[in-house]
């Protein structure tokens, strides 16, 4: 399931790897120029022929499709592409200049194959010839479908598994995870070191306190989610942001401090770090999840509102970014926007 094709070009450089390692950097670069056409970068590619490298830059649309390839001089158009909704190319110029096109993916044309390389799978025209290896997450969607059959709006999420969880038992809770199975990492922020004492020395469950971020992996992550599921949690997959981006942002918060709780169930636990001061109304579990989604580039919490303009009866559209404070409000909003063809997909 979900297997990839293998192309073996048997490059001559394999037989001289030891020679490259042993000899000078100049010799290594000479062989690189001889046996490779270009070096791919985030913004385009570099050709290595001739006496000096030449840089080329991709101009992409909102789906990541390479529409224009510009020479480093900023004037010469090396390639231009137009696409049908599922990636078919028409009315193009310089088609053979470079193979990265629809969604920025490589188009494999050897022997007339004409499939796009999406990493985990190849894409043939409007569908995947092999089933999605993670199709059990999306029972209502064909395992061969590309982007819910809505390629004008969405790009393939790459099998990422960013999930937002909410539960509304008592004061409720919101947390987030990345990864699957044994590779799942749960990030949960809260008052895991107790709350601040009141003037009379007493504790209040609604008081502020040290803000603790949990980073749970493996069995700890599974146990945490299993325990929370007893309180009737809801689970939402966020399809427009990658595991890597969310994990990088949350790891930065987690690693900002090495202080562990001095009491509670996570006392001295290296999976729990005191990172800041928890505030019930401005810095809590739900605001942390809201912030990481918004700052990661996800559009899950972004929308528009109509605002009346100065002229009577006319309105203008104002973009808004939501930052929820209460778990129940986050849950209600995600329930509302979760549907087929949405970047939010509810699984539980």
Automatic annotation (TrEMBL):
TM region(s), chain numbering: 12-33
Cross-referenced InterPro entries:
Rhs_assc_core, T6SS_VgrG/RHS
Keywords in alphabetical order: Membrane, Transmembrane, Transmembrane helix
Q: Which PANTHER family match?
A: PROTEIN RHSA-RELATED, PTHR32305
This one is known as RHS repeat-associated core domain-containing protein
Highest classification ranks of the organism: Bacteria, Pseudomonadati, Bacteroidota, Bacteroidia, Bacteroidales
């Amino acid at each position: 399931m979900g297997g990839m094709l293998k192309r073996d070009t048997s490059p001559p450089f394999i037989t001289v790897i030891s020679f490259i390692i042993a000899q000078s950097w100049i010799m290594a670069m000479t062989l690189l120029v001889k046996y490779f056409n270009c070096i791919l970068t985030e913004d385009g590619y570099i050709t290595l022929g001739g006496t000096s490298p030449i840089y080329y830059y991709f101009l992409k649309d909102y789906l990541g499709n390479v529409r224009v390839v510009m020479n480093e001089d900023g004037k010469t158009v090396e390639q231009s592409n137009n696409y049908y909704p599922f990636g078919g190319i028409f009315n193009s110029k310089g088609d053979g200049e470079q193979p990265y096109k629809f969604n920025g993916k490589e188009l494999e044309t050897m022997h007339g194959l004409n499939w796009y390389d999406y990493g985990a799978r190849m894409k043939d025209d409007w569908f995947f010839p092999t089933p999605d290896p993670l199709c059990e997450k999306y029972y209502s969607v064909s395992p061969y479908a590309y982007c819910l059959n809505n390629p004008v709006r969405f790009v393939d999420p790459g099998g990422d598994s960013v999930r937002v969880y909410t539960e509304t038992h008592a004061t409720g809770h919101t947390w987030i995870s990345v990864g699957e199975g044994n590779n799942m990492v749960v990030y949960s922020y809260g008052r895991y070191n107790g709350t601040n004492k009141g003037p009379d020395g007493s504790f209040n469950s609604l008081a502020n306190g040290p803000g603790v971020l949990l980073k749970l992996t493996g069995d700890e992550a599974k146990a945490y989610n299993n325990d929370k599921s007893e309180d009737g949690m809801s689970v939402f997959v966020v399809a427009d942001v990658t595991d890597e981006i969310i994990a990088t942002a949350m790891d930065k918060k987690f690693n900002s401090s090495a202080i562990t709780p001095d009491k509670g169930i996570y006392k001295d636990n290296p999976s729990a770090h005191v990172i800041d001061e928890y505030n019930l109304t401005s810095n809590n579990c739900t605001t942390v999840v809201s912030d990481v989604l918004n700052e990661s580039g996800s559009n899950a919490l972004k929308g528009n509102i109509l605002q009346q303009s100065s002229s009577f009866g006319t309105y203008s559209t104002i973009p808004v970014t939501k930052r929820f404070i209460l778990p129940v409000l986050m849950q209600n909003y995600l329930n509302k926007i979760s549907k087929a063809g949405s970047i939010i997909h509810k699984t539980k």
